[in-house]
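Exam prep: given the inputs below (a chain plus magnesium ion), describe the expected output before reading on.
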Amino acid sequence: MKAANVVVLGESGVGKTAIIQRLVTNVFDTQYHSTLGVRVWRKDYTPCEITFYFHDVQGVHMPDALLKTYTGAADAYILVCDAPRRRTASSTEFYWAERIEPKKPVILVENKVDMVKNLVVHAKALFRLEQKMRAKGINVCYSTVTSAKTGFHLSKILQKAGEACLRTLSSQ
Ligand SMILES: Nc1nc2c(ncn2[C@@H]2O[C@H](COP(=O)(O)OP(=O)(O)OP(=O)(O)O)[C@@H](O)[C@H]2O)c(=O)[nH]1
Ligand SMILES: [Mg+2]
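Solution:
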């Protein structure tokens, strides 16, 4: 198995920990325990023969020099915003996207879609965000709406992250 670092970034409360926990343990916790610092979660993913190390980074902004120690070690990123709060998408575009290495692959996620009425509106907004990120030179390789609560569209993230990490590892 190859080791791959996936660094998960986004504003506080968007559901980074919930997504990772669902991917690794298939559990969803309704309680909010804000992450302090960075927590690393391990998951073997046999279809790609990869061991993921998901770096669950606190959403509270930390000094750029410290954040860089995590973003620099990434083989891929997952950037998360949430559907009920539009400003979290702006933060993805103008804060988090400016603190990653642009050539490394990015999976763009709009989470908590179980809370919205019109999914099509959100899918279209995510598509526009993806276009804007690409225009900034960010290497978005996949984008999806998700729900960590219901598990909606989460399985694709493992597959796309696995493929992205294999590309990064083979180019090194
Ligand atoms: N309805 C719903 N709630 C969610 C979903 N994902 C996460 N939540 C809830 O949102 C809250 C915040 O989730 P977290 O995963 O802790 O958020 P985070 O991005 O890790 O936040 P920080 O650690 O502070 O950066 C928790 O109460 C979760 O239960 C989702 O898909 N749907
Ligand atoms: Mg967290």
